[in-house]
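Weekly structure sync, notes
Attendees: PL, DS, HV (note-taker this week)

Item 1: NUDIX domain-containing protein
DS walked through the input record. Source organism listed as Bombilactobacillus folatiphilus. Sequence as pasted into the shared doc:
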Amino acid sequence: MRTEPVELTNMTMILDPKSQQVLVEYRRDPHWPGIAFPGGHVEPHESVTHSAQREVKEETGLTVTNLQLAGLKQYPLEPRGRFICFLYRTTQFQGNLQSSAEGPVFWMKLQDFYQNPQLAEGMEDLLNIMVTDFNEVIYQGEQTYFF
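Item 1 (cont.): predicted structure, written out as tokens:
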């Protein structure tokens, strides 16, 4: 069979090139809590890029432009299916920063990101996609693969 159920999501790393800080969100979601980049689900009939722009606006108050696809995160959904997260990055944003019901948003120095003990699970892997030549991370069971 060549088709399978797929859950589509997005996440965007916003980097301020002057301060070398990234915009993060402290997620309150009990299923995936901690510090992460803004993002969410792709709605039916919505482009993936537009969904990323919409999610950033809803969660941070900022309007982002010039989104660059950095890569993908994926893992199997049980009993059948796949979860795919499109990972974007940008340095172009405008507006007034404001938190949402998802959690507080704030700027963090990029070099402090890896050492932060409050990162959401797997965020180190996603940052690797955002800032390196890797373009995909796949989780299969206990294994993690970078391509």
